[in-house]
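look at this:
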Amino acid sequence: MDKKYGLIEKVSTSTGTGRNGVWTRYEFLMADGKKYSTFDEAIGKGFVIGNYVEMSGKQDGQYWKMLTMMEIDEKVGTQVPTIPDAKELKPTNKLMSSRDELIVAQVLMKGAIEMSKGHNFENSQDEAKYMCECIPELHGVLKVALNQLNE
């Protein structure tokens, strides 16, 4: 299986009707200018602009057929860890590695961006202030989660 990596810059969809019924094609424009698409809804709806992904697939005639896609950590080249439910977490006094601190920083920023969606800010300073207020809320949960993952 062939693997490709990239940062998603744009996500678009197109729909149509063929002899097998209605179809939806999900297209991902990567930072390097290459486009990849799939008809798989689970893949198509699972990724957004800004995700760094690893795609697995194979050449199928003139097309490259995407079979899987997963978000990975661009700098480390590993799959982004899944954080367990906060209710299951127990604090520890274990120190985090620099890699874990990097993951925490990335997840905090993504979380703050997600939390700010849907708000109408008057200017970018108000948006930045709101995002900075979100980060401490998220930070404690993430530190505990990463300590649990390292045990």
